[in-house]
Amino acid sequence: MTEPLSEHTADVIVVGAGPAGSTTAYYLAKAGLDVLLLEKTAFPREKVCGDGLTPRATKQLVAMGIDISEEAGWLRNKGLRIIGGGVRLQLDWPDLASYPDYGLVRKRDDFDEQLARQAQKAGARLYEQCNVGAPIVDDRTGRITGVKAKLGDEKREVTFHAPLVVAADGNSTRLSLAMGLHRREDRPMGVAVRTYFTSPRHDDDYLESWLELWDRRGPQDRLLPGYGWIFGMGDGTSNVGLGILNSSSAFRELDWREVLKAWCASMPEDWGFTPDNMTTSIRGAALPMAFNRQPHYTKGLLLVGDAGGLVNPFNGEGIAYAMESGQIAADVIVQAHARATPAQRELALHNYPKILKDTYGGYYTLGRAFVKIIGNPKIMKIATQRGLTHPVLMKFTLKMLANLTDPTGGDAMDRIINGLSKVAPKA
Ligand SMILES: Cc1cc2nc3c(=O)[nH]c(=O)nc-3n(C[C@H](O)[C@H](O)[C@H](O)COP(=O)(O)OP(=O)(O)OC[C@H]3O[C@@H](n4cnc5c(N)ncnc54)[C@H](O)[C@@H]3O)c2cc1C
Question: What integer best gives the mean pLDDT of the chain?
């Protein structure tokens, strides 16, 4: 059977309805473009994540008109609690003109669905259970002009066409790979695992980050590699997980599910992080950091979120950057769409990687240096012992790690961080 052309043709195809894809589709549709948003799964669906949202991500949700009230089920947090070197330090999110002073938590099954529905409300045409396979490429120019997909339970073969395609298909980004865009090995990569427990700690109003993980089960305490988190979900459960960077010597050596189990078994009993209270199995995924896939625009394809390796190397946060890159990509596409000639359109589209580099390039270069330094356990130990007892230094560290500064008119710390990011190479 031949398909109706208009139904499967659009101005832009967005592949993947995670935070990056739904945000891109939302802003494109708001600007009046015809957008197809193609998602392999059906909502609600599980996504392996810590579910923690900093003020950066919160700002993006506000901008998209998502109802983030407590009545709508969102749990707010005031800041970050850091535990390590025998110290427990609670730091509030900074007071800034540019970002709210609170963060949020929300399970990704529901979070991602809300964003996708918001894109749909703005006019994007969402296809769920639409598994995108090969790109359709023009033999003469090498440009992507559409995608092939399998749709629905019956896996019907469908082709979609558009002059521009956005890869928002996450860390594994089969679409980018099929267009010849491979991962840069010189960029940091993390892996993280997490699970949920029913716990009395579920309504914690701080995100909790552990710089040291101890296995206290044997006759002697044993320091485990990696960094952990405990995020209260406000729904009776806590999200507990840990991450490790490939700059660590232990990166390939260990079974991270077992490390998480060992850490949890060493926690105070009344927190309830026991196998009996575990509500889902331990699952993990990769964290692609610091622009580990480039270029972010080539031959009709733009990369957003994890597909473009946009996770912040300082703290493993990816949702805010997925949404911000989606908004930036949409702005660029809307401008390109209004240009009269193909040459003019290309000129506008090639601005996307430049804006990304201007926005994050210097900061990510600093992050890459940071990742190398903390990969050395000796340096990490000294930093934890000395740094955590120094409140001013820790306030600075929080701003640096969470990328929370005012670009203009901020305080001295903001000026130092912005200055360093400006002078660092934007690679
Ligand atoms: C264990 C863990 C904990 C984390 N914790 C946090 C945290 O607390 N806070 C934070 O900010 N970040 C966290 N991150 C990072 C965060 O999860 C990602 O950066 C974020 O999800 C990236 O969004 P995205 O839209 O780019 O990709 P994704 O969220 O991966 O979305 C990609 C979408 O594309 C769809 N898709 C894939 N292939 C296809 C295809 N072929 N056809 C159609 N659709 C397709 C997928 O089904 C999915 O819906 C964590 C990551 C991990 C692994």
Answer: 93
Cα(112) to ligand 1 centroid in Å equals 9
Q: Which domain holds residue 295?
A: 12-56+107-185+290-365
- Position 340 scores a pLDDT of 97
Residue the block writes with tokens 């099929």: 178
pTM of whole model > 0.90? yes
Gap between the Cα atoms of 347 and 81, Å rounded: 46
Is beta strand 87-92 parallel, antiparallel or unpaired with respect to 79-84?
antiparallel
Distance, CA of 255 to CA of 247 (rounded, Å): 17
Domain count along the chain: 1
For residue 3, the 8-state DSSP code is P
Does the beta carbon of 19 lie inside 6 Å of ligand 1?
yes
- Tell me the residue ranges of DSSP E strands in 356-408: none
- Hey, which of 43, 47, 49, 126 would you mutate to test ligand 1's pocket, going by the most ligand atoms within 8 Å of its Cβ? 49
Identify whether 396 is part of a domain: no
DSSP 260-283: HHHHHHTS-GGG--SGGGB-S--E
Across the strands, what pairs with 303?
167
The CATH number that applies at residue 45 is 3.50.50.60
Backbone angles phi, psi at 197, to 5 degrees: -125, 145
DSSP secondary structure letter of residue 315: T
Nearby residues of 265 by Cβ (< 8 Å), 6 or more positions away: 215, 217
**Domain assignment of residue 300, yes or no:** yes
- Tokens (6 digits) for 287: 């964290």
The answer to whether 103 touches 76, Cβ cutoff 8 Å, is yes
Cβ(49) to ligand 1 under 6 A?
Answer: yes
Whole-angstrom distance, CA of residue 230 vs CA of residue 272 = 12
Task: Residue 411: count other Cβ atoms within 10 Å of its Cβ.
Answer: 14
Instruction: Tell me the per-residue pLDDT of 248-291, one tens digit each, with 9 for 90 and over.
Output: 777 777 888 998 999 999 999 999 999 999 999 999 999 999 99
For the CA of 243, the nearest atom of ligand 1: 1
- Three-class SS state of 51: coil
**395: CA distance to ligand 1 center in Å?**
29
Judge if the beta carbon of residue 38 lies within 6 A of ligand 1.
Answer: yes
Indicate which residue's Cα is closest to atom 17 of ligand 1. 49
* Spatial distance between the Cα atoms of 37 and 116, rounded to a whole number of angstroms: 9
Query: Do the domain assignments include residue 5?
Result: no
Question: Best of 189, 240, 301, 306 to mutate for ligand 1, by most ligand atoms within 8 A of CB?
Answer: 306
Domain membership of residue 95 (yes or no) is no
- The identity of residue 284, as a single letter, is G
